[in-house]
Each structure stands twice: as C-alpha cells, then as structure tokens.
Amino acid sequence: MTLLEVRDLHVWFDLPHGGELHAVQGVGFEVDPGQRLGLVGESGCGKTTTILALMGLLPGNATVAGSVLLDGEDILAVGEDTVRPHRWKDVAMVFQGAMNALNPVRTVGDQIVEPMELHGIAEGEAARRSARELLEMVGIPGSGASRYPHEFSGGMRQRAALAMALACQPQVLLADEPTTALDVMVQAQILEMLVALSTELNLALILVTHDLPVVAQVCERAAVMYAGRIAEAGPVDALYHDPRHPYTRLLFAATPDLHGERDVVSIPGTPPRLDRPIVGCPFQPRCDRAFEPCPVERPELMGVGSNHIAACHLNTVAAWNGA
Amino acid sequence: MKPSVAAGLAAQASADARAPLLDVSDLQTRYPVRRGIAAAIARRPRRFVRAVDGVSFSLFPGELLALVGESGCGKTTTALSVLKLVVAQDGTIRFKGQDITRLRHRDLRPLRRRMQLIYQDPYESLDPRFRVRQTVEEPLIIHRIGGSRAERRRRVLDALARVELSPPELYAERYPHELSGGQRQRVAIASSLVLEPELLVADEPVSMLDVSVRAGILSLLDGLRRSGLGTLMITHDLSTAAHFADRIAVMYLGRIVEEGPAREVVHNPQHPYTKALLSVVPKRDPRVRTKPQVLKGETPDPVQIPRGCRFHPRCPVAEPRCRTIDPTLHRGAKSVERHLAACVLI
Amino acid sequence: MSTAPILGLEPGVTADVVPARRKGGFVWQVIRERPVAAVGASVVLAFVLIAVLAPVLAPYGLHERVGPVYGRPSRQHLLGLDDGGIDMITLLMYGARTSLLVGFAATLVAGVIGGGIGILAGYFGGAVDAVLMRVTDYFLVIPDVPFMIVVAALWGPSLTHIILVIGLLLWTTTARIVRSQVKSIRERVYVKRAGAMGAGHARIVLRHILPQVAPILVANVVLTIAVAIFDETALSFLGLGDPSKISWGKIIENAFQRTALSSGAWWAIVPAGICVALPILGCTLVGQAMEDALNPRLRVSHLGARKFRVRAMVAKGEL
Questions:
Q1: Among residues B36, B210, B318, C272, which is most buried (max CB within 10 A)?
Q2: Alpha carbon of residue C33 to chain centroid
Q3: CA distances (Å), origin C238, targets A5, B243, C88, C232
Q4: C81 DSSP assignment
Q5: Which positions ≥6 away from A132 have C-beta within 8 Å?
C-alpha cells in the first residue's frame, strides 16, 4: 500500500465579489517511503495550494474535495478534525521562505522542542536532547540550539526550519520551494541533505518548485502542473527525454542549461483564468502543437509509458514523435 | 552642467567606436559597520564591509557582461557604484573615456540619462498609480526631452513597440496591476529605453519572473545589445549567464576571481571557485550527473576578508602559499586570450 | 498578448489597494462600501448644510426676542428659548456656523502643518527628521486645555486666534502618521527608481509619494475635525471663545452662567450638547472607516483559520 495517495483533489476559493476560483482541479499522485516526488509548475498553477491541502492548511474561504489517503486512511474526510491528528506527526512541511518565519524571540532549540511537546513526542530534557540531535542531522552543531534565528545565516535558518519539520518524525515531508531564495552553493548543500535524509530516514519527500533542474537532480519522479491540473507525470528521465505534453517540453526548453547548445525559448501568452470553466485543453492557446480536438475537448490523463501519464490529445495520434 | 564636463563628453563623442563604454579600475566601495557608543569611546578601530574590494573590468558597446556570484559577493554594489548611486571610496570609473568617479550631484543628471538601471522586482518598480504611458513618459519630462506632448507620446509609443508590447496604444493606457510580471518588466525596460541610453545595467532582470517568460525578456535584452547598447547584467544564475552573456565575470568577496568569454568560462573554468560553482548548478537533464563539488561552510563575512587568497579557507585545492599570496587576475597557461583568473595554480 | 490580470496569488493573500482613478475616489469608495461611513458622512453633510444655509433656514432672527427668558418648548419654538428669549433652534443653527467653521479651519491648519512636517521629516530623514521630530514631541506634550487658556488669555479671543491655537495643538498626530507613511513609501522600488532616473525631490514627493500618502492623510484629517470641533466647544465653554460669535460651546456656557439648570431649562443645554456630539460622531465614523480600509490588506492565512470546508466527491460529469 502506498504511503500517501492523493485522489482527485479539488480546491476552490471563494472570491470576494462572488464566484469561485478553481485552484486545484482533480490532482492525484502517490509517494512511497523513501521516494522523492517533484511537483513542478509556474506561479498560479496550484502546486502550493495542493500541498497545503494535504495538511489541511487552507483558509476559511476554501473548499476541498477528493481524498488524501495516508496509509489507506482518508485524512481529509471530514476536514480539520481528521487532518489535525496527522499534521506534523505524519505529514510535515517546510514552507516557502521558512527561513524568515522563525520566531525571532525564541531560541532555535525551543522552536524544535515546541512541536515535540505539543504532539506528545517527548518532553523536557529528552526533548532538548532530541532537538540537538536533529540539528546535528541537518548540519547545525548541537550548540546552535541555544542560539536565536538572527544569529544564523539564511542557509542555516533553512536547515533549522527543516529540523523543526522533522521534530515529530513524520513519514512525509512536503517542501515548498525550500531553496529558492538561497545561493546556488547553499542550495546544493540543502538539496544534498534532503536526499540524504530521505534515504536514511526512509522519508517520503514531495518537493514543490518551479526550478526544473532541481527536480531533475533530486527527484525520481515528477508531476508537471498547469492551470490547476496535472499535465504530465512520470520518471524525471522520461519527462526530459520523452515528454508527452507540449508544456513539459517547452518548460524544459525555456530553462537555460549550462552546457545546452540550443536556444532558450519563451512560451507566449499567460495561463488561463481559473475563476471560470475552461473549455478544451487549458494549454491550447499557448501550445505550438495544438490541433482540432484541443480547443473543444478537455484531454484526460492517460498512460503513455511505464508509470508515465500525460493529458494531451497528441498522445492519441499514432504519428506522435515527441518533438 | 559645467562647461568642462560638457567639453569632455563632446570630445569623447568622436572617439573610436571600439573604445570601452565603461572602464572600471580598482574600484573599492566600503560600508562602515555601525558601532555602538561603547566601542566609539573605547576608540576601537572602525570596521568596514568591503563590499567591492578592488574590481576592474571593461565593457564595450554592444557587449553583454554578466557579473555572477553569490549573495554578498559585491556584484550589486559594483553595479550601483558604476551608476553612481552609491559612492565609491577608491578607484576609477570611466564612462566613454570620461572620469566620472568624483562627479558631483549636479553634473550627474546628464549622465543619468545615458546609464540606466533595470531593477529586479517588476512588481515593485512601477508606480501603481501611474498608467504605463505616464511611467514611460516620466524620464522624458525629468530630462526635458521632446518639446511637445505629441513628441513625447511618439517616443513613448516607440519605446513600447521596441519592447514588444503591441499594440503600444493599448498598453499605454494600462495600470501595472493589469499586467503580468513579464509585461511589467518590459514597461520598466521601455522607460529606460525612452532616454536612449548607452549603458544598461540589469540587476537580476528575470529572477522574479516565471521560467516561461524569462527567455522573452532576455532575448529582448539581447536584441538591444545588438543595436549597440552595452549591458551589464547582474545575476546569480550561471546558466542564464552562460546562454546570454558575451563575457562572464565571477565575483567572490568583493573581487573578480575569473573573467572571460562566456563559453570559455563555462567550459574551461580556471578558478577553483568557478569550478565548484559550475559543478553544483543543477542540470536539467536527469542523466547528466556531475559530481557536485559542494564547498564546506558559507561565504565568510565581508568584514573579515581572509588573508592571502580570499578563497583559500574554502578552496578544495589550496596550497600553503595560498595563505600568503593574494593573486591578481592573469591569464593562465591553459586558457585563451582574455580569459583571466586570480589563482596561483594556473 | 493577453492583458488579463494573472490570478497567480497565494491563497488568502489579497492585493493592495487598487489605485483610485478619480480625484476623491478613495473617499467615495469608502463611503460607498461601508454603510457606517455613509451614515457618518450624511450626518456631517447635514450639519454643514444647516450651517451654510442658516440665515435662510432659521425660523427666527438671531437677535430677535420672541418670548420670555427660558421660554418652554412649544409648537412655534420646538426647542424653547434661551435666557434672552431668543429661539433656540435659530441659535443652534447659527452656532453651527462658528463651531463647524472653527472645526474645519483649525483642521486645515493642523493638516497643512502636520502634513508638511511629516513629509519633510519622512522624506529627508537623518538630521532633518531628528530635529522635526523633537519639535513635534515638544508640541505633543503640551497639555491642551491649559495651553488654550493661556494663549486665549494672552492673545485675546478672536476667531482667528482660536483657529490657530487649536490647529497648533492638533498637528502633531498628523505629522507622525504622515511621517511613518512617507518613510515606508520612500523605500519602495519605484520611488528609488525615480530618484535614480534623475528626478528632483519636488517631483518625487508630489507625483509619487503624496498620492500614496493622501488617503491616510485624509482619514487622519477627518478624525482631526472631530477633535477640533470638540476643542472649540471646550474653549467657548470656558469663556475663551470669541464673544461676538455664537457657537454651541457658547450656548452651553451661557446656559451655565445664567442658571439654566436651576431654572430647569434643559433645552438650553442638552440640544447644544447633542449638536456637538453628532458631527463629532459622524466624523469619527467616516474617519475610522477610512482607516480600516487602509489597513495593510495582506492576510496570509495559510496557517490561520483551519475552517476550510469539505465538499463531497461528485461524479466526474457534474464538476
């Protein structure tokens, strides 16, 4: 049984002047212990909303549908009541800009001990000892526990945030753009650590980012999101070498590579509005390979290879050659 | 402006076209570290953040030079110093042959027209209350260009067309909040172009934009470069620099440690820092697994710059002599002309 | 290229105040959107109209004796008569002129001084800021009423003096609020950009900073009007008001001085008091509604309310 399985997840937000924003439109994926899954997309595609929904961290104007199965149990069944017992204990999160969200008036050690005590994992001296061990595990000397966040650099604060997330020994770690604001060398250190942690602790990692190369290097599988839906999902190798959705292909092509020789492209147009129903394929207006069915009929996710799915009509055409 | 300044500019106008647009020599910019009253009374020596600690480079018209480095390396301060938005303590800055290092406020205004800065954040760099046409027109008004309203409007629409915001009349009436990030950045670029500058400094021009729109903005800058504009691009993204820059200068702790044609620096790096940086940049092809040379620790505080080679504490191939020798940029044995690095080992 | 705004906002985050397209657009917007403000504005407007049209609306003459001292309220005189036999409603209407005039004029003085000092201090910072703020602090700690008494006693109680005195007392709050707003706007990238472009101080302040400061300045000014009206009433009540002009405070003072209470003539005091309270209340309602509207609108509620709703899964075709 998979550790975490998301099925047909939908999230709507009430808009201030009436109407709804359909931010997540039927997203599904799964992760097993020790696996690293990338959730990739640009701003507005719904990837952050998706993982917030996994932890039930949505605001009052949000409505959720679908199931989030943790070890077979639907933690989203009734909402807050079914999610809360699992929040942080089984599923934990490192937020975007977490390094700036540490409480400035409490020591780092205290902030790691806090979730432990709140969730009944450990207390007092035992908790403090665990906190120091956690800090060592993320690359901060144990003595750092008595320091305050402002005494650390950005990279160290991000590690501290990671330690806080791991305080209750979760099975799944959600990381939202964990290295986006960091220098490339520090990014490399943090990513190296995430991979090590996921292997050593058998931790399932869901990495949300807009940075494709990061996903290509860290994750085994990835799902590319566009306009609230999954456009394509599969092994990262297949996504790069055999993309089955034009958006995936174009997204890679738009990413400059150190040694890449080909021209970097940009994708004209903007993503569609999510406050009204979309007819046909959401990517069609910007797609370079759109044909007759695209503006009319919404493509469904279909298998296109081993563990590889894509939502594109081109996959139904026998002459598709993956451009 | 003072007559001598005007004369200087006029003389240079007829100079050789291959003369450097910008010539920076041994630039030094420091920020004092605030010290408390106790330290002041105890007369402890003032400490400085040596943001730019001896930087030299040239930029030619029609060239795009990327200043690359991690945060704190001094790339942004260098750019601000060149633009005279920050006062440098030492060194020389020559713009088209004219020494502008010590120019005073009054004389700077005509200069500002010829050197423009594109900011990193397109969401903050436009006044939310101004329509696009007002934003793009403002520089013309400030510098008193274009005698009539109609003339200014013509220039505004022209600039909008140059940044590919078509039809310009439509975009001219929009407010920033009605535009996407990429469109806003184009408006910012247009408002610089409208002055017809000779030097463009772009501070991380695409880092806050979605990946799919970055190439559009960068190729716009590329096109401008082809039309003779000299561009200094600040970026932390080596891949972008590799693709779009003519030359790359890698900075570390206030100095340029390697500089050369972009292709060369990326394919044949000479300095250990450059090599390490290139090795940790994630590649988009999952099959390419270079062995990342992850350096230990983090960049030291620019207040306490290490003695000798400033990189030696973190350098994977440091030798004992690196602790005492502070290398200057020079051409190594294995590199081509104009590819320089500051390391004793090459 | 599509010009639709991108909906790439994080959940729970709403964008900043959309710029007003018309002059006074902000004020109008607040009044339109918040019933409380509409009520307050109507009340103030009503009083202003009464004040302006007093000579036309007043049922009797201002100095016209129409009955006995402290005549009781009757059908011809709904609020009775004062100690001089003059119709109370007439008195209140004419009183409105002075009270509101002083209120608005003093606020103008306070707004101009406070706004000016706030802008200078916030924009230039450094030594200018330090000096101006010390001056502000100095004025801030002066106790209002004794100051008013002393100045009125020294300068003599003319209307101009009263306006100036009240204005001098009230500018400090405005200065502080404007200063902090200017300081934060000054750091915005587009302001720095204008400076880097070569714009002079005047241009930056007038075209970029002032339009952003205006809404909060207006909100503060409206609230200051309330205080100014009150201060004028207090001054007049203490006998320091202009003796040649009738104002609500003076009406109350007269009543007190001439034993209205012991005569049981409540109509000589209470209506005037209500007249003071109502415009103050109106201004407060509008001013506070404006301040509410200006509160930073960024509500990042990821970690906030967990009251999201769950919708049952429906069949594919129905979504």
A1: C272
A2: 19
A3: 77, 79, 21, 10
A4: B
A5: A109, A142, A145
Positions of chain A with pLDDT lower than 70, given as ranges: 318-323
Q: Which of A65, A80, A268 sits opposite C313 (nearest CB)?
A: A65
Q: Is residue C305 part of a domain?
A: yes
| Cα gap A135→A162, rounded to integer Å | 9
Q: What is the pLDDT of residues B263-294, one digit of tens each?
A: 999 999 999 999 999 999 998 888 887 778 88
Amino acid present at A227:
A
State whether A62 and C7 contact (CB < 8 Å).
Answer: no
CATH class of domain segment(s) B3-341: alpha beta
Beta bridge partner(s), residue C310: A64
Q: Cα–Cα distance between B335 and B258 in angstroms, integer? A: 11
In a domain, C15, yes or no: no
Across the interface, of B124, B139, B174, the residue whose CB is closest to C197 is B139
User: Rounded to a whole number, what is the distance in Å from the CA of C190 to chain B's nearest CA?
Assistant: 4
Nearest CA in chain B to A258: B239
Residue C212 is part of which domain span?
25-318
Q: Across the interface, do B165 and C196 touch by the CB < 8 Å criterion?
A: no
How many Cβ contacts (< 8 angstroms) between chains B and C? 66
Which distant-in-sequence residues (6+ apart) come within 8 Å of B171 by Cβ?
Answer: B132, B160, B165, B179, B183, B187, C3
Domain boundaries, chain B: 3-341
What is the length of chain A? Answer: 323
Quick one: which of A168, A106, A112 has its CA closest to A135? A112
Strand partners, A229: A226
Neighbours of B37 (CB within 10 A): 7
pLDDT beyond 70 at C289: yes
- Rounded CA gap, B301 and A33, in Å? 40
- Nearest residue to B201 (alpha-carbon basis) of B313, B79, B110: B79
Q: Is residue C143 reached through a cis peptide bond, with omega within 30 degrees of 0 on the bond before it?
A: no
At B256, is the secondary structure helix, strand, or coil? strand
Task: Provide the CATH number for the domain around residue C274.
Answer: 1.10.3720.10
- Distance in angstroms (rounded) separating the CA atoms of residues B95 and B9: 9
The structural domain count of chain C equals 1
Q: How does strand B22-32 pair with strand B48-59?
A: antiparallel
- The 10 Å CB-count burial string (b at 16+, else e) for A61-83 is bbbbbbbbbbeeeebbeebbebb
HEC string of chain A equals CCCEEEEEEEEEEECCCCCEEEEEEEEEEEECCCCEEEEECCCCCCHHHHHHHHCCCCCCCEEEEEEEEECCEECCCCCHHHHHHHECCCEEEECCCHHHCCCCCCCHHHHHHHHHHHCCCCCHHHHHHHHHHHHHHCCCCHHHHHCCHHHCCHHHHHHHHHHHHCCCCCCEEEEECCCCCCCHHHHHHHHHHHHHHHHHCCCEEEEEECCHHHHHHHCCEEEEEECCEEEEEEEHHHHHHCCCCHHHHHHHHCCCCCCCCCCCCCCCCCCCCCCCCCCCCCCHHHCCCCCCCCCCCCCCCEEEECCEEECCHHHHCCCCCCC
Domains of chain A: 4-90+170-316 (3.40.50.300)
Six-digit token pair at A266?
Answer: 């940009």
C49 has pLDDT over 90: yes
C20: in domain: no
Spatial distance between the Cα atoms of B160 and A14, rounded to a whole number of angstroms: 36
pLDDT at C314: 56
Q: Do B112 and C199 touch (CB under 8 A)?
A: no
| ipTM of model | 0.87
